[in-house]
Design goal:
The protein is mainly alpha-helical and about 90 residues long. The protein is built from four helices and no strands. Helix 2 packs parallel to helix 3.
């Protein structure tokens, strides 16, 4: 979350994969960042349940997170999003 704030974005944090699924059922997000190692429902299982999987959930960043790599991936996502919606 701190990474997002440093890059000028805002985010929503949940405690586990099941809460992530519940949040996605009631809210729309431009970007989902999913941790693979989460309690209750791991990130891989949670991602498989998200209906927007076909919409481009197709990237990965390993821990420890390098803020420059993180910024590049978000910037690339935003640029591609604007190309699609333009």
């Amino acid at each position: 979350m701190l990474f997002l704030k440093k890059l000028g974005h805002q985010g929503v944090v949940v405690a586990n994969g099941m809460l992530a699924i519940e949040k996605l059922q009631h809210h729309t997000f431009d970007l989902v960042i999913m941790d693979i190692d989460m309690p209750v429902l791991d990130g891989i299982s949670a991602t498989q349940l998200i209906p927007c999987l076909e919409a481009g959930m197709n990237d990965y960043i390993s821990k420890p997170i390098d803020i420059k790599v993180f910024e590049q991936k978000i910037t690339s996502f935003i640029e591609n999003l604007f190309k699609i919606t333009a």
